[in-house]
């Protein structure tokens, strides 16, 4: 996961672990939000199965930070959560085969997710819900299903069957939507709108594995974001990204939601082509983009595809760049981030993209 590092003194990088960080670590989320807290309003809450933290600089920072959290909690409950019976996604899933009227926001988001599914050749597929439920990785019923069970659930995964018309959405009979790979990035985009409306000066919004860097770093430097070592302890980092304002950073990896059985690691990112956990040779992918949705969706899709198949997909998205970490501990960085990534973990080597 990404973590924000302090750069309050030029030339030094001090990781100041504040109270919020403790909450994030307890939640299993690996973000240090350690930019100097001076004059920032900080609010934290749980939503989308993770910890959400808003740190906002500017005259109405407290009001704005709270508005960001309220919006993300509302998105979770009313729009996006497959875990909440009252959300639009739950209504769509329980009415599979029939059309359902939903909030305009939900319909528009699903339209964008279908577009992303096409652009990633279905590596990201929002109709993956039945497979997610079957494996239940990280949940109380996590298991290796039988080949028959996988085959039956996989047969329901097909984004082409989803129809959006105005504010109505219909999925195929037996299908289920799951927005787990996109909701936190969408939340960063919603946060960006609120920050702009409220004329916030600067902000760092973290929603699980997705982070928005808004405005200039008050410390006067570029923002510095640490990427977690996917095979290290929860407080260790692989390297650092130095980024300009306005970027979103999302990481997908195999080290948080997974279980092991007979020496095999089963992670929560599933390959729609096989119905099983992705096995592309990657252990972590971080995607940087001005769009939270793009960074979140692509981090998942690239994890499924592996770096070679990901490169042409990344090129379809304006300004999307990635850091790939392979299971043999090689780190591969796309050209747009080459000057921005600093490898700090000695047990990894920097490779060249072929
Ligand atoms: P990402 O790579 O961004 O997403 C992986 C997730 O996307 C998987 O967990 C799965 O849900 C889904 N997925 C897997 N493979 C694919 C694929 N090929 N294409 C598309 N999607 C795929 N968790 C809880 O335990 N309790 C909750 O109440 C809860 N509510 C949530 C509500 C919302 C709106 C969202 C977005 C998530 C919620 N979660 C909940 C999920 C939880 O936060 C997950 O851990 C998280 O979504 C995984 O995100 P990630 O950044 O680690 O991985
Ligand atoms: Mg994702």
Short description:
Helix content is 29%, strand content 26%.
- What topology, given as strand order, has the largest sheet? 2-3-7-8-11-16-17-18-20
- Tell me about the largest β-sheet: 9 strands, mixed
Strand coverage percent: 25-35%
Q: Structural class from helices and strands?
A: alpha+beta
| Each distinct ligand | flavin-adenine dinucleotide, magnesium ion
Helix content: 25-40%
**Number of distinct helices:** 8
Low-confidence stretches: 4-35
Structural write-up:
By secondary structure, this protein is of the alpha+beta class. The strands form five sheets. The protein has a nine-stranded mixed beta sheet, sandwiched between helices. Strands 1-9-10-19 form a four-stranded antiparallel beta sheet, with no helix packed on it. The protein has a three-stranded antiparallel beta sheet with strand order 4-6-5, covered by helices on one side. The two termini are 25 Å apart. Helix 2 packs antiparallel against helix 7 and helix 7 packs across helix 8. It has eight helices and 20 strands. Helices cover 29% and strands 26% of the residues. The site of magnesium ion has 7 residues, from strand 11 and helix 8.
């Amino acid at each position: 996961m990404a973590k924000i590092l302090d750069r309050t003194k030029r030339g030094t990088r001090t990781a100041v672990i504040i109270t919020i960080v403790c909450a994030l670590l307890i939640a299993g989320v690996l973000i240090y939000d350690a930019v100097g807290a001076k004059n920032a309003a900080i609010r934290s809450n749980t939503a989308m199965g993770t910890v959400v933290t808003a740190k906002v600089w500017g005259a109405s920072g407290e009001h704005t930070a709270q508005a960001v959290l309220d919006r993300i909690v509302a998105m979770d409950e009313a729009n996006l959560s497959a875990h909440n019976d009252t959300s639009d996604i739950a209504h769509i899933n329980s009415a599979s085969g029939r059309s359902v009227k939903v909030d305009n926001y939900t319909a528009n988001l699903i339209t964008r997710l279908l577009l992303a599914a096409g652009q990633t050749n279905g590596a990201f597929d929002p109709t993956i819900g039945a497979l997610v439920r079957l494996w239940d990785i990280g949940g109380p019923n996590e298991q290796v299903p039988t080949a028959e069970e996988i085959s039956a659930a996989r047969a329901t995964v097909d984004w082409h069957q989803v129809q959006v018309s105005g504010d109505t959405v219909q999925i195929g009979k037996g299908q289920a939507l799951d927005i787990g790979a996109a909701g936190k990035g969408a939340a960063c985009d919603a946060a960006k709108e609120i920050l702009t409306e409220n004329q916030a000066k600067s902000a760092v919004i973290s929603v699980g594995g997705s982070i928005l860097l808004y405005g200039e770093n008050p410390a006067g430097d570029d923002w510095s974001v640490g990427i977690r070592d996917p095979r290290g302890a929860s407080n260790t980092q692989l390297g650092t990204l130095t980024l300009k304002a306005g970027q979103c950073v999302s990481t997908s990896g195999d080290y948080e939601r997974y279980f092991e059985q007979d020496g095999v690691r089963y992670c929560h990112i599933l390959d729609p082509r096989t119905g099983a956990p992705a096995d592309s040779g990657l252990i972590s992918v971080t995607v940087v983009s001005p769009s939270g949705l793009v960074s979140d969706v692509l981090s998942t899709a690239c994890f499924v595809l592996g770096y070679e198949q990901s490169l042409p997909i990344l090129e379809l998205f304006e300004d999307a760049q990635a850091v790939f970490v392979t299971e043999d501990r090689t780190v591969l960085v796309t050209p747009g981030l080459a000057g921005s990534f600093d490898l700090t973990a000695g047990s990894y080597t920097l490779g060249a993209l072929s």
